[in-house]
Design goal:
About 25% of the residues lie in helices and about 35% in strands. The protein has about 230 residues and is of the alpha+beta class.
């Protein structure tokens, strides 16, 4: 392996280790060294596998090199360290002009903690009866009543405000209570006050018109905070 290639690989190893953090080990092997059992010429985050400069390749690599056949890159495979860590590894062979392997660029990522987290999440999300399909959730009470059909025929379940001073929000609410006495509350004071009580005369595009003490008063959508029925006691 020539000096320029090694210099580039060293920079690449440092960049990848910095990018992916201390769980990512990067190893560079020189297969043309005098001692093939001491092929590691550079390593980042060696604590992942426990290896250091001067150590040799893994048994996976040695078996491939000694097989006598053409060696192929291995991408995203699982490996196990002597102390029990599980690694997700990639081995890329560096070749000369004759396509003969002269080096190895290896990435080993410690996924032991991730596997433990995955197992914990699986236990947390697993149902008591795994064979059961997830139950559908009804969008509203009417759908739920129709599904179980406690009453013959189709119907709609409606709930209205129990209070006489219910808020008016929809156009049909204003249409229903036109002519009734309502209270309008404003975001900001008008004529020194924020609350007005009068007879509802009209509703148009969010604007409300009341008869307040005999005078027609219009409130815009932008200034209205709340409109509700007014209960005199």
């Amino acid at each position: 392996m020539d000096a320029s290639m090694l210099e580039f690989l060293l920079r690449l190893a440092k960049a990848l280790a910095a990018q992916f953090g201390p769980s990512c080990e990067i190893v560079i092997h020189d297969l043309k060294s005098n001692d093939p059992d001491s092929s590691i010429v550079a390593i980042e985050n060696g604590h992942v596998s426990g290896r250091k400069l001067g150590d040799g390749p893994s048994h996976v690599v040695l078996e491939a090199l000694n097989s006598g056949g053409a060696v192929e890159d291995r991408l995203s495979y699982l490996a196990k360290t002597a102390d029990g860590k599980t690694l997700k590894s990639t081995t890329v062979y560096l070749r000369d002009e004759h396509q003969q392997p002269i080096g190895i660029f290896s990435i080993n990522y410690d996924i032991t903690l991730m596997l433990a987290m995955e197992d914990s999440l699986r236990q947390f999300t697993a149902p008591k009866q795994p064979e059961e399909a997830p139950e559908p959730i009804a969008q509203n009470v009417s759908d739920l009543l129709d599904e179980h059909d406690p009453i013959e025929g189709s119907y709609t379940f409606e709930v209205s405000s129990a209070g006489a001073d219910r808020a008016l929000k929809k156009p049909e609410h204003f249409e229903q209570f036109q002519g009734s006495e309502v209270e309008v509350r404003l975001y900001r004071p008008r004529e020194g006050r924020k609350e007005f009580v009068g007879v509802l005369r009209s509703y148009e595009d969010g604007d409300v018109t009341l008869n307040v003490n005999g005078a027609e008063t219009r409130f815009t959508k932008q200034e209205i905070a709340l409109v509700r029925l007014y209960l005199r006691v």
